[in-house]
Every structure is written in C-alpha cells, then in structure tokens.
Mutator-like transposase domain-containing protein
Amino acid sequence: MSKSTEELLLNSVESASRRKIKIPDLLKEQDSQNVNIIVELDLLSSLMKNLLCCKYCCSSEKIELREDLKSRRGLAVSLEIICHNCEESTSTMSSKISNKCYDVNLRLTYGMRAIGKGGAAARIFCGLMNLPPPPAKFERHNSLFLNVLKTISEDSMNAAVHEAVIANDNNSNIAVAVDGTWHKRGYSSLNGVVCATSVENGKWGNGMSGVLSIFQRSETSRKACYTQYLGDGDSKGFLTIKEAKVYGDTEVEKLECVGHVQKRMGTRLRNILKMSKGIKLSDGKNISGRGRLTLKEVDSIQHYYGLAIRKNLSSVEDVKRAIWAIYFHKLSTEDNPQHALCPLEKDLLKKCLHGRTQNPNESFNKCIWERIPKTVFVGIETLKFGVMDAVICFNDGYVSRIKVFEALGIKSGYNTERALLIIDNKRIFEAERIVNKVSLEARNKRRYLYNNCKFHCARLVKTESVDTAVQEVTNILIAAADLSIPKVSSHSFQRYKPWWNADCQTAYEKQRRLWGIFRRYPTTENLLAFKNAKANARRVRRRSQRQSWIRYVSSLTSSTSSK
C-alpha cells in the first residue's frame, strides 16, 4: 500500500466496522480461467462441433459432447467428448477434487449454510436452476468445514483478545460484555450460545460454552482476565462468577448495560401506570390522562433518561443532575415530588459511567441466526458450524472466508474474492453512513439558526392596520425568495432543491463515476477515491445550502444581518 493511501486511511473517519475489518488488496486483474460459470450443455456441444475435430480420424461432423450420468457426483459431472465416426472418446470431471470432495459440492454446502439453508433448500435450488441434484450425503460435508472453521475462529478470537489487551495499555485485565441466546424461541431450547465481546473493540472473544467456563479458561486459552462483567441486568451469570472466584482474590466488577438500564426505567414507569390504574391520587385525578403520566410521556422519559447517562459520563453527580432535570421539566413544579419514578442508586449510576451497551453482542447474535434460523431445527454440529462462521465474519469480515477455502485446498477464485470484498466494503459504507447520520442529527440544532439574524420587527410593521402589516411582511418574504431562489424555465427540469447548482452537479457526477469504478474493481485505492469524492460532494452541497440560506435570510430586510 502506498504512503498516500496509508495517510488517507489514517485521516478518514473510522466506524466500528472499519476498525475491525482489514480489507486486503486481493484483486489485481481478472483471471478469466479461475471462475465458475453455468452453461447449457447443448450450447457448449454446438460450439465444440464447430471448432473441434477428432485427433484419431480428423472427423468433425460426428463429434458430440455429453454427460456420463453414471459418473455424476452431485454438481460435479463427467463430461465426455465422443467421436461417432471412430468411436473414440475422452472425458473429464467438471470440478476439481479437494479433500476427497469435489470443489463445487463443497462450495454449494458452504453457500447454503451461509444463507441459513441446508440440503432440502439445495435440492429445490438445483431443481429450479435445471442443475444436477446436490450430493446425497450433503450434510457430511459439514464435518470438513467444522474442523477448518474451528481453527480459523480460534485464531480470530485469540487475535481479538490480543487487540483488546493492547487497547487496554497492555493490561490483561479487560472488560467483556456477556450475553446468551437460545436456538429456539421461548425457554424450551436445548441448544444455546453464550458470547463475550470485548468492550474495547467489540469483537467476539470466546467460543460456545457457559459463562463460567468462558471465565475459567480465559487465562489459559486467551492469556487474559475478564475483570469487568458487562451484563444485561440478569445477575445469575455474574453471581455464578462471583461465587466461583475464578481469579482468586481479584474480584470481577459488574457493569451495567446503558441500554438495559434505560429500558428498566421505562418498565418501572409502565408498571406504576398498570398498578395505579383506577386509583385516585391526592388531587382526585388518575395518574394517567391528559396532562398526566401517559405512555407517550413514559417513552419520552425513558429516552431522555438514556441520554442523561450517555452524555454525562464524567461523574455520578452529573448523571443525577441531568436526570433530575428531566423530572423537574416534566413535573413543572417541585411540589410533591414522586421519588419512586426516578429510582437513582449511586452504585447503579456508577456502573453506567463506562457508557457501553451490549449492542455488539446483539449484532453477533443476529449473525448467528442468519446462518442458523431459529425456525428450523438443526443438530449441535450444524449449530457450531454457524457460530464459528459467524465469528470469523463478525471479527474479520466476510473476506476471512477466503481462509476457509485455502485451508481446504480450494482456490477461492476471482468472483468469490470480488463478492466478499464488495460485501465488506458495503458493510463499512453503511456503518459510516449511520455514524455520519447520527453526527449530523447532533448538529441539526446548530444549522441554519436565526440566532445570528437580527430582525427588526417594528420596522416591518410600521402601520396601524393589521392587514396592511401582514401584506408588507408577505411582500418582503416573496421578494427575498425571488432574489435568492433561482427560477426554473418551463422547458427545463424543475429541481426541488433551490440550492442545487453546477458545482453540486459536477461533484455528484464524479461521486457516481467513482462508485461505478469501485463496483467493478473493489480495491482499497478505488474505495478511498470514492470516499473522498463523496466527502467532497457533501461539502459542496453544504456550502451551497449555507450560501443559499444566507442569501435568503439577508434579503428579508436591509437591516437583517446573518453569519
């Protein structure tokens, strides 16, 4: 990678997905020979009749390409070229063999499991695509992938823990977020997954086991101690860790998930509404109703309760002050305060000062059930298959699946590498779009405000007639719009964005052109070029919007000034 590329990577705004995924430069140029294609056999046979001749009798009229049905092995078929003139023939299989299995059958098995399907779906897919049926022993291919995925996922988890230790100033006592999920909805599932993600880098750092086993083996298998436990309020797992004293005299600290604490506030308020239904308060009115505590107000309090914690991580007192501000704002008076509505324990708030949530755990759970849907029963081996594949994709991106093919002795191929790179780049693109959107929403209050505009309303309405004053203000607004908003001719495209100009159009066209290049050749260089063009187009649009707004506001009256 060039020096300029490294500088661009360092200077760009990183999302969590970009920090985790390291995208290699795999695609240099397209290898047209290292791809798989679907072709109709009769078309291929016609092509060969026109080009080939028998090397024994030199005849080209009676050359035939056909499939030897007796040698079919799933999607791998035996193609036979026969000369009916001299009865000579030659044959070859349509796929290579790796680990005593044909590559195309292994790819089918992996592909179906990656989208949460199995042998039954593969048979339907092959039937509708007019392909040979999948191998009869379809599920037996899982054992090959299971052994490979176990090794690759272990390496990925060890690397994730190592990154967390480095991020913690090389201190092996790190914080983890622990969460569990069941394979079957409800509480009757026999299979489940417990995961521990790093609070620092959000990567998954442990395998399938109970929470106690995860902590007990952390020192031997991960060379780290999980001294901080971020949970969702269910203290059974934490109490088990605390009673077991897995690290001897070193105690494990309990951290609270901010999201669950926020939900807990809403749940308690809704319970109060439910228990107080029909009961008259001291003022003779119900607790709910117009101007009282309604479900809409509960949602509002819950939302601002979470914001009060997230925006005041410096101390417990700051969090308390922000929460009480919500209370007094909603109550509008300090008379008869209802302390039960805001259960503030100092220890609870102290456990929230980290500002972290279990969102990475929930995201990882989603990755698992995309591969192993909860609506379909599978065995424990298939469940492990899905979990381990989810680990490598969640930690290192979809491009890490190339390692699986390499371990099985299969060449990944140009189309496979290209598809995985596009998926990872889209994941990074969407993550950064959401980050930028959240950042943009936080800046909304600072954009296009009137606080820098000094309106002299008295000068606008120097008349005794109200109708005349309204008409004067209306005329001023229309005149300002005529001056600032560009006109559209009857024969041109009518834009709904008055601030759009030639600079915006040029920047947008450049962004679209570089996006097309990146879609065809998804390399890091092309990704950076597209990102820069997108950022530049955004700057041009914002500058145009700001200038258009300033022109409009400044045109309202000669005494109006704007920044």
About this structure: The two ends are 43 Å apart (CA to CA). Residues 1-12, 337-346, 444-456, 558-563 have pLDDT under 50 and may be disordered.
